[in-house]
Amino acid sequence: MKMLYEGKAKQVFLTDKEGEYIVHFKDDATAFNGVKKEKITGKGELNNAISSLIFEMLEKEGIKTHFIKKINSNDMLVKKVNILPLEVIIRNLSAGSLSKRLGLEEGIEFEEPVFELCYKRDDLADPIINDDHAVILGLASRVEIEQIKKETLKINELLKTFFRKANLRLIDFKIEYGRTDDGELLLADEVSPDTCRLWDIHTNEKMDKDRFRRDLGSVIEAYQEVLERIK
Ligand code: C5P
After folding, report:
1. Range 128-134 contact pairs with CB under 8 angstroms and sequence separation of 24 or more
2. Apex 161 CA angle, 146 and 112, nearest 5
3. Candidate from 47, 190, 195, 223 with most ligand 1 atoms within 8 A of CB, to mutate
4. Are the C-beta atoms of residues 181 and 59 closer than 8 Å to each other?
5. pLDDT digit of tens for each residue in the chain (231 aa)?
6. Which residue, by CA, sits nearest to atom 11 of ligand 1?
7. Which residues contact ligand 1 via a Cβ below 6 A?
8. Which candidate, 56, 72, 115, 176, has a CA 20 to 30 Å from the CA of 104?
């Protein structure tokens, strides 16, 4: 199979069928714009399983995604899209780069979800941008940005409820959208503990990639626990 693209944690392959790609989840973990790197055996399989369950749930709730089906341990069949170079972030509680940038301790609950956009560019370390910047850079139209914001807030509500049932608190997350050849926006990429901050609802234990970023203990044990709880 021809590889179309290789990212830090995934590869995308062409299939025999026009309009369908395969996403392969790798065991690689990176943080701080690729400065910290490690192979974590089993991570790809867990993220594929978790992402697949989440895409299935979101599809059932009326969200349009690139997901078609999980085809084996590390691979997912998806609809062909062009990924917008935008990281779309929602924050329900303070953590991570927001805490650092605004001098807020972690774990403060916001009255409303905070919506952020970052420009996906490794050489610029993914700077935070506003709607106007996204438009002048030609990343998305004004109408698309509004649509993305509305859809992402809806996804936040669905994810919060979904994770709450698994005794997990959704602190924040990053998603990406893709455009089909017909110009339709679909939720793409992945939704996993690599891209969501998830804290145990009772103990506040971190069950996500911060374990890797901050050396807080086994990544695999936490991701496995997340999978067991959402199954
Ligand atoms: O680091 P920061 O606090 O900005 O991250 C916000 C959310 O976006 C976190 O859930 C993090 O896992 C996710 N994120 C991501 N990929 C990036 C940057 C952030 O999945 N490149």
Report:
1. 128/101, 134/86
2. 45
3. 195
4. no
5. 899 999 999 999 999 999 999 999 999 999 998 899 999 999 999 999 999 999 999 999 999 999 999 999 999 999 999 999 999 999 999 999 999 999 999 999 999 999 999 999 999 999 999 999 999 999 999 999 999 999 999 999 999 999 999 999 999 999 999 999 999 999 999 999 999 999 999 999 999 999 999 999 999 999 999 999 999
6. 195
7. 87, 89, 95-98, 126, 172-174, 195-197, 209
8. 176
Contact assessment for residue 65 and residue 154, using Cβ atoms and an 8 Å cutoff: no
How many residues does this entry show for the chain? 231
Instruction: Match 């697949």 to its residue by tokens.
Output: 52
Q: What is the DSSP letter of 140?
A: S
State yes or no: ipTM above 0.95. yes
Q: Which residues pair with 86 in a beta bridge?
A: 119
Two tokens, residue 105: 């301790």
Report the separation in Å between the CA atom of 17 and the middle of ligand 1, taken as the mean of its atom positions: 33
Residue identified by tokens 């891209």 is 195
* Rg of the Cα atoms in the chain: 17
Q: Which atom of ligand 1 is nearest to the CA of 209?
A: 12
User: Checking DSSP bridges between strand 36-39 and strand 196-200, what pairing results, if any?
Assistant: unpaired
d(CA 222, CA 178): 29
Residue 1 CA to ligand 1 center (angstroms) comes to: 31
